[in-house]
Amino acid sequence: MTVTASARRKARHYAMQALYQWQIAGASLNTIEAEFHADNDMSKTDVDYFRDLFHGVAKNLDDVEGTYAAFLDRGVEELDPVSRALLRMSTYELQNRIDVPYKVVINEAVALAKKFGPTDAFKYINGILDKVAVQVRSAEVQADKG
Length: 146
Known about the structure:
Layout: H1 5-25, H2 29-39, H3 47-59, H4 61-69, H5 81-96, H6 102-116, H7 121-136, H8 138-145
Pfam families: NusB
InterPro entries: NusB-like_sf, NusB_fam, NusB_RsmB_TIM44
Function: Involved in transcription antitermination. Required for transcription of ribosomal RNA (rRNA) genes. Binds specifically to the boxA antiterminator sequence of the ribosomal RNA (rrn) operons.
């Protein structure tokens, strides 16, 4: 399958939902992933990207949370579950998927926050991810602004 922007978008959509489920239910990653494959049409999804985001966040959780937590105005545990899942996923993506432009990562997170998050959560997420991008992708951000 050729990887398209829409296939990546679907991967992020499902990864965010899977992370949300993992946070709430606490089931194993493999169980949740199997449920997603059973319950959703993954034929137009970048499944490898979904798996990388979902498992990558869980595997690197302390590092991921430590990176974005520095920019929060509250504790990580005080975030609503959708915002927490999005910040985890997007921070992981900024840290580990340098093949994806930082603006794409942020725009996709904002779009998902508008769709699934509480009112105005997208503004908060945008602000946090802007700061994370400056920290973990400083050369890219500087090149973009210069």
